[in-house]
Specification:
Layout: H1 9-12, H2 14-23, H3 36-44, E1 46-47, E2 53-54, H4 62-73, E3 77-82, H5 88-100, E4 106-108, H6 115-118, E5 120-122, H7 124-130, E6 137-139, H8 141-148, E7 151-155, H9 162-165, H10 168-174, E8 176-179, E9 184-187, E10 193-199, H11 210-213, E11 216-220, H12 227-245
Parallel strand pairs: 3-10, 3-11, 4-7, 7-10
Antiparallel strand pairs: 1-2, 5-6, 8-9
Helix pairs in contact: 3-4, 3-5
Amino acid sequence: MQSKLRQHAEQEFATELEALASHDDRQKPPGWKLSPWAVKTYLLGGRLADGFEISPKYVGHGKLIEIAVATLATDRALLLYGVPGTAKSWVSEHLAAAISGDSTLLVQGTAGTDEASLRYGWNYARLLAEGPSPQALVPSPMMRAMESGQIARIEELTRIPSDVQDTLITILSEKTLPIPELNHETQATRGFNVIATANNRDKGINELSSALMRRFNTVVLPTPDTLEDEVAIVSRRSEQMGRALELPC
């Protein structure tokens, strides 16, 4: 019996990811678990050479997923933008799972998100006892992603205060995170990139500066084109949730 209420994408769809990896003989960008072709197939679904079916994670314009994957294969960060309910977080999680094998390096944006959430914090007991040291430093998910060469995710970027948002400019442009207290910096390992999501209809949002926007390639995820697409999405997600929650038929 599954004890977890909700599994991460790389756990729930581990069988599909393993099947894709076993069939994936295409070139992979540095640090990627799968090739761009395999990542696209994982998101959009398809049939492998041995007949194994990959379920579609995104129902919509396949070209948008191709643009998103191509963006992440470069040094450009990806911003998934659109109205609520257009699968931005869902696509972000699955992209990170397919590319890095880990979708958990996540920063949740809120009005209270501070710079430490994007950069690093301190263990204040050790800081007071020892002063600034590597042992007293508490890395953020962003910093851990830079060190390990993985995808970092930022949810609800526009809910983060503007001055905190701009902390990302150096990270995205220079691929480095200065730590002046230690006279040191963390340089990003190849494979590192950022996927952010943002709603364009929420109240209380903070507009992104033009300097920060230039560091992102923006992909706008639209609402479903047809009623059939919407029914397919709801049916598939209901089935997945039913299995996860072990709901009686």
